[in-house]
Amino acid sequence: MKKDTQRERRVRYIKLQDDGRIRIGIIGTGANVSVADWHTRGIIHDRRARISAVYNRRESTTQRWKDRFSLDAVSCTTPEMLLEACDAVVICTPNSTHYQYAMAALAAGKHVLLEKPMTLSLEQAEQLEAVAGQMGVHCCVGYTYRFTQAADQLRSLVRNHIGNVYTVQASLGGTRLADAGIGMDWRMYQALSGAGALEDFGSHLIDLAHFVTGGTYSTVFCQSDIFIKNREGENGPEPVETDDSAALTCRGGGGLGSFFVSRVGLDALRMHVAGEGGMARVTFGEETTLCFWEKQSGGPYGGGWQNIPLAQETPFEDWFRWETSDFLDGIEGKPARGASFQDGCYVERVLEAARCSAENGTVNRIEKEDFR
């Protein structure tokens, strides 16, 4: 008789609890821009799970968040209390705390959905990956753009038409922090965030390029800058420590990659992929458009751009809903396409090399780039 795996036993145990629903704990409900809100909507939408517990360092924020979503989740005063009341956790805290909360959850045998970037350092990320493998739990990193219709179709175009990839160009950013009147928050302190736009937006682009093309990079050159040098802190103006914008050039099994990120004046996500069988371009957002221009193998381009129809979707709301569904699939032992901790470690390798490159002005190697 086949012996049940550790994961199968854990899934069966979960199914016996709480009327068969998977109990999810939320760590971190946010203050300014709350990714926890999107995760919450995704969980509420899926009948396989419910939010059973929440922990946030500010209890007043926790109560407002519970009231907003009409939740009866337990308000926990410590992370340990939360881990006793759930089967899986979603971690939405500042980057500097990802490691400690994820490691505690893994030690307690919980499934983990960890917001990006995975950790502040490659060493921490590799430790989480190793422990997750030992515990036999399902873990993923919140690279939500994987769950867009455009990413799915672009990936299909690469595999079925474009083939060998020559170049990837992508950009992503925001506009909120272009306002110099916005004061300091955790994203602007190196000890809490690691880097700025490079971590926040660049991590998404590196993961998406890997997801779409299947390739990985072996070298990177990065330049970054801070344009709003000072912002108002608790006791007056303070120097901003993390980058407002960054530009990366990568090379490796994914061809040449060019990535630009900025938190002080860039809208939407744009990606362009060119290769042996043609090129495709996409802009993600309210009106996502995907176009493809076919090329004969070894021959010329012909026919011009063609629009690829995409199923209708609501940005972010649908993306997080599909990410939640995928996370629950993984917990139940079904195939899942979310970014694994192994994928997260690859992104951290690129980011760590990029940070060193920006600091030293050198082209840096990305170790262990080929893991598939």
UniProtKB/TrEMBL annotation:
GO MF entries: nucleotide binding; oxidoreductase activity
Keyword Oxidoreductase on entry: yes
Domain of life, per lineage: Bacteria
Residue ranges of domain GFO/IDH/MocA-like oxidoreductase in the record: 154-280
All copies of domain Gfo/Idh/MocA-like oxidoreductase N-terminal, residue ranges: 22-143
Keywords carried by this UniProt record: Oxidoreductase
InterPro entries xrefs: Gfo/Idh/MocA-like_OxRdtase_N, Gfo/Idh/MocA_oxidrdct_glycsds, GFO_IDH_MocA-like_dom, NAD(P)-bd_dom_sf
Listed PANTHER family: BCDNA.GH03377
Protein name: Gfo/Idh/MocA-like oxidoreductase N-terminal domain-containing protein
Gene source species: Hungatella hathewayi WAL-18680
